[in-house]
User: Fold these one by one.
Assistant:
Number 1:
Amino acid sequence: MKVISCVLALAALVAAGAADAQSIVRVRGTITAVDGNVMAVKSRDGRDLKLQLPDNVAVAVAKAVRFDDIRDGDYLGATTTPGPDGSAIASELHYLAPTTQEGQVASDLAPGSTMTNANVASKVVATGKRELTLRFKNGTQKVVVPDGVTIVRSVPGTRADLVPGEYVFAVVQVATDGTMTAPRIQVSKDGVRPAQ
């Protein structure tokens, strides 16, 4: 019985080690080249990266949305930073897939930024003021949306959209040998950048 317990414990440790063998990083940057299943990207912090693209890589293209098009019930992600009065000021808004977990987490887009994934509960449009109230499981968040803030929706794209000069955002799997694989790429089009 002790031998079986030891074998099971060892198997659990091996499985945990395999799960930890890959880490996840966010890559933001500009495509510099595409060669078969390898895409070269100059990251926003100046690194030259090579991303492996699986045969079934999912490509999504950014499409601009107007603030007036946002409706109650829409499921959005809002990246915000604190304003001088403590209010949450949006730096970008993007539509989310229904499977995206709701709630609030720290964002790595800018120091002190927060990501709120939630449904639109209400919208206020007044002279010089645009504001959304977002409702999620454990509360609500009022978000001030200044003019010029990027508001995007991802629409299906193809590998043909991955061309040098376009801006990409990807959540990348990094293997222990440093190989970076991007199962899904969000890419700019017509000057509209993907949500980050």
Note: The chain has one domain: 25-196.
Number 2:
Amino acid sequence: MHGRPTHRLLVLPLLVAVVAACSGTASGPGGGSSPSPAPASIETPETAVDVIRAFTPLFDGLGPLNPDMIGQGSFWESAPVDAGSPPKAWKVTFTVGWGDCQAGCIDRHTWMWQVSRDGTTLFLEEAGTPLTPEMLAGLAASSTAQGVGGAVSAGPVCPVERPGDPSCAPRMVDGAALLLQGKDGTEVARFTTDGSGLFRIPLDAGDYMLAPQPVEGLMGTAAPMPFTVGQGAETWLDVPYDTGIR
């Protein structure tokens, strides 16, 4: 994800009840099991979308694409990848648009996954105009859960920083293992990011520590991050790794 703020902690209000609960340990898409129980079979566009929503707060406020609506800038699409009934997999795309969307939106940012019938996910791509910090904060504020969510990225990407250059924006980290500890130091959950770098773990209210683990190919591991989950709120964490590029 590009254009996101770093080194910040944002507490988000709860808008509706938690959709899916988490128990025990968890790993992210591409890391094995889902952070919340997936349906036995993903047979509808909506259930495919819910699988991805379980991995991030960013998409809670997005509704389905309405082809009859003029000016709809942000939406999700979920299309079967084959003609089976139900299909073997769904391609799920989340789109955020801004800037004169009545005329088709000047800027767009998209994320895309494939969700198999058994709930297995594969991150495909992230593309488009880099998100501004304000856009990212607005998406995160649509959270409908209680717990922690965020994004894992690595920088710098360029030897010489060029502010505003999308090619030098921090890159999202694939395969970052995040260890979550309770106040007494016991392990509460684990999550392994896919190529989107996004994560989400439902939690009870209380104090926690996020302990990022080393990632092969990155010189610096993000420092442990203490945080608090309020009742009916979701905490957003930006988790910064160091590429070692200077």
Note: The chain has one domain: 9-242.
